[in-house]
Backbone:
């Protein structure tokens, strides 16, 4: 199996490390930012770097069969996902060997799951989701597509995370809570109530940013 990493930031570094540990060959890391100098870090993995404008030529030359999209920008990720599928490549998930995934859990294509993550029985992880180190996703959780779970965040059972939502470092969500589409849970927050779409919540217990700010003002 030969894989290309699309994007040159932190997510690509995670994927490159995972694939080194799992003996999957990375053909190239494609930098999406053509106004910047060539990437240097892929050399540490013995991997070629290129700009995305040369994507089609390189994947054909190197017989690339799979790709991982390594950008945090949701719209960019969606566009690239469509481009990858039209290129005939298969989206691959990069799963660290030190992650623990239950046999009844489901992980969709294009995810990155880092070391120490625990995905419990009957949890469902949506397409192109980023799960950082030491995340706990308990039983029967449903994580939407293009979501991002920060290091050490914890989801209790039956939690639902909407598409494109972000749960930042060390945040916790109690059982059966729903986090809306493209909502943000701040670092260290404890979510005890449902969060509507496109809302940012912070604090313990978590509240919308404007409400939290007013409370602090008094």
Residues:
């Amino acid at each position: 199996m030969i894989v290309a990493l699309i994007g040159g930031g932190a997510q690509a570094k995670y994927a490159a490390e995972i694939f080194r540990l799992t003996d999957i060959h990375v053909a190239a890391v494609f930098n999406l930012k053509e106004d910047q100098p060539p990437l240097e870090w892929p050399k540490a993995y013995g991997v070629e770097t290129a700009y995305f404008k040369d994507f089609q030529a390189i994947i054909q030359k190197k017989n690339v069969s799979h790709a991982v999209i390594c950008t945090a920008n949701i719209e960019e990720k969606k566009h690239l996902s469509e481009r990858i599928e039209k290129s005939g490549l298969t989206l691959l998930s990069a799963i660290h060997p030190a992650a623990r995934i239950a046999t009844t859990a489901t992980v969709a294509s294009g995810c990155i799951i880092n070391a120490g993550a625990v995905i419990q029985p009957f949890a469902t992880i949506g397409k192109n989701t980023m799960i950082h180190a030491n995340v706990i996703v308990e039983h029967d959780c449903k994580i939407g597509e293009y979501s991002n779970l920060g290091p050490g965040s914890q989801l209790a059972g039956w939690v639902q995370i909407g598409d494109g939502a972000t749960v930042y470092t060390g945040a916790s969500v109690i059982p059966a809570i729903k986090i809306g589409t493209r909502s943000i849970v701040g670092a260290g927050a404890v979510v005890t109530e449902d969060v509507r779409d496109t809302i940012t919540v912070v604090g313990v217990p978590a509240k919308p940013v404007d409400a939290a700010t007013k409370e602090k003002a008094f």
About this structure: Residues 135 and 152 are 5 Å apart (CA to CA). The first strand starts at residue 2 and ends at 6. The radius of gyration is 18 Å. Residues 214-218 have pLDDT under 50 and may be disordered.
